[in-house]
Design brief:
heterodimer; A: alpha+beta; Thrombin, subunit H; Pdz3 Domain; 2 domains; six-stranded antiparallel beta barrel; six-stranded antiparallel barrel; 4 helices; B: mainly beta; 3 domains; 3 helices
Chain lengths: 293, 264
């Protein structure tokens, strides 16, 4: 006895079995496991919000072996943590070319040490361009999932029906839906973490608020200055109104965040401001955002 | 060749509503045999009798003939013939990712269908050694005891609980065992896990442990899984080690277990 549904069911189970081989269970927080996936040889990527300690992290692999893992670095902004394991046998998961399309079937694969690989299925419900997370990171695409990302599956992989990775599943970036951190973003963050041990993010050391100038031009008034921060050192004063940065007008604090993505740590950026009614220009050397403790 | 609609309709006809008005309890059940055997959860069929309503509205007074509270399964017998019995599936062949269909009466909606995939199969901490089926199907109170079926409509489990949002189903093989072998031996005690073992909260005066030296306040040594294994080992007399008062003095109790009750 067979039918189309049974054939689809078998295909889905086969995808889970095949792609599930790349998925590991991650033991990096009290009480609950999360999941991770072999992204590069010896490198497992998981969701940063599920990594609550820096020492004594272990992963359980598809063959049931429990091995020690070392935290290579993490980026809370994009919710990515990178683990290293002494394992060269595991090949990295194949990645899908390009972002998925809305309506495409997607599976979230996780693993627990007790019951092995686990799966949920749904569709990709929305895909858009660059998206800034509430944690301040930049995702190259916003990939919203219409499937349940259960607590233990965060950090697990989201695959298409060919078993290719569409991204890393996380329930921590949106209240309304699970999100897949796109493969391009994961690649970018993994590259930087493996090269530098962390994701350096640009920082000016200013607290800003939107204001409107008398000529209806919009700007951002400096309400606070980090002592000895990049902006303070460049000579910015409380009450200065920032109108453009790097030649780009700034009307929202989000504009600053976007600009800092393209002006790396250490580069000089020209700040145009209004001080006591007069226009000034200063050059700020972009600093690195202090690490959260 | 049958589509989801046909599969769901056939499954719906094999699904019943189980009601215990005096307990304000109820749920769903599966017609397991044509001549009136219904399987459901023991937390649904919690008394000697239960009302059973078929898909076409026919109602029967059912007799609860076997219960296994540890696996949360019960058998109900109704006086009826030629019922649309469900087709049993092989729960041990289920793989994560396989399509599954759940039918039941969640929140009073009769014959409501939800679909999803098998999330994982394996034991759940504190729920014995049973290989529970976890499925990403949307369940609600009232689904309890109803069927979880595979893509061909074969019943692979009984929807039993919702744990962290995941549907948990008892594998059909465990339900079949109850139908074949009847109620497994019970200790007849209410237990609560504590640091040193299992605290006896009460002893059922009609249960197996009533004739032993065990009484409320004693602490059984070992885990609930170990106790379950001992009960499943089909021994006639169970030797239990426990503490009473003095934590250094281990006492022993012997409980004569009733044999497997005959399935009616």
């Amino acid at each position: 006895m067979t039918n189309e549904l049974a054939a689809l069911s078998d295909e889905l189970a086969a995808v889970v079995e095949q792609a599930g081989g790349y998925v590991a269970s991650v033991d990096a927080r009290p009480r609950f496991y999360s999941s991770g996936v072999f992204w590069r040889p010896g490198v497992i990527v998981t969701a940063e919000h599920t990594v609550r300690r820096e020492e004594e992290i272990a992963v359980t692999l598809a063959d049931g072996a429990r091995v020690a893992a070392r935290l290579a670095g993490s980026d809370p902004g994009t919710d990515i943590a990178v683990l290293r394991v002494e394992d060269s046998a595991h090949a990295p998961i194949p990645k899908a070319g390009g972002p998925p399309k809305p309506g495409q079937i997607a599976l979230n694969l996780g693993r627990s040490p007790d019951s092995g690989v686990n799966a949920t299925m749904g569709i990709v419900s929305a895909v858009s361009g660059v998206w800034r997370t509430w944690r301040g990171g930049r995702l190259d695409h916003y990939i919203r999932l219409d499937l349940t990302v259960y607590p233990g599956s965060s950090g697990g992989v989201v695959v298409n029906t060919a078993g290719e990775a569409l991204g890393i599943a996380t329930s921590a970036l949106s209240r309304i839906a699970g999100v897949a951190i796109p493969t391009v973003t994961v690649d970018r963050v993994v590259d930087e973490i493996l090269a530098r041990g962390r994701m350096a993010r640009g920082y000016l050391g200013v607290g800003l608020q939107r204001v409107e100038l008398p000529d209806h031009q919009k700007g951002l008034i400096v309400l606070s200055l980090e002592p000895e921060g990049p902006a303070a050192r460049a000579g910015l004063l409380l009450g200065d109104i920032l109108v453009s940065l790097g030649g780009v007008p700034v009307a929202e604090t989000d504009d600053i965040q976007s600009l800092l993505e393209t002006h790396g740590v250490g580069s000089g950026i020209e700040a145009a401001l209004v001080r006591a009614g007069a226009a000034y220009t200063l050059t700020v050397t972009v600093g690195e955002r202090p690490r959260r403790s | 060749m049958s589509g989801l609609g046909e599969i769901a309709e056939a499954l719906r006809r094999s699904t019943v509503e189980v009601r215990l008005p005096e307990y304000r309890a109820g749920g769903s059940g599966v017609i397991w045999e044509r001549d009136g055997l219904i399987l459901t959860n023991s937390h649904v069929a919690r008394a000697e009798r239960a009302q059973v309503e078929l898909w076409d509205g026919r109602r029967y007074e059912g007799r609860v003939t076997a219960r296994d509270p540890r696996r949360d399964v019960a058998a109900i017998r109704i006086e009826a013939r030629d019922l649309p019995a469900a087709t049993a599936g092989d729960s041990s062949a289920l793989r994560p990712g396989a399509l599954v269909i759940a039918i039941g009466s969640p929140l009073g909606f009769t014959g409501a269908l939800s679909t999803g995939v098998v999330h994982s199969v394996g034991p759940i901490a504190g729920m014995g050694r049973t290989k529970w089926i976890r499925a990403s199907v949307r369940l609600a109170p009232g689904n309890s005891g109803g069927p979880l079926a595979d893509a061909l409509g074969r019943v692979v489990g009984l929807n039993t609980a919702i744990v962290n949002g995941v549907g948990v189903a008892l594998p059909a093989s465990a339900a079949v065992r109850l139908a074949r072998s009847g109620s497994p031996p019970m200790l007849g005690v209410t237990l609560q896990p504590v640091a040193s073992g299992l605290l006896v909260l009460g002893v059922d005066p009609h249960g197996a442990a009533a004739a032993s030296s065990l009484r409320a306040g004693d602490i059984l040594l070992g885990s609930s899984d170990e106790l379950a294994d001992a009960l499943d080992a089909e021994q006639e007399v169970l030797r239990l080690r426990f503490l009473r008062g003095d934590p250094r003095r281990v006492r022993e109790a012997f409980v004569r277990l009733a044999p497997y009750a005959e399935a009616a």
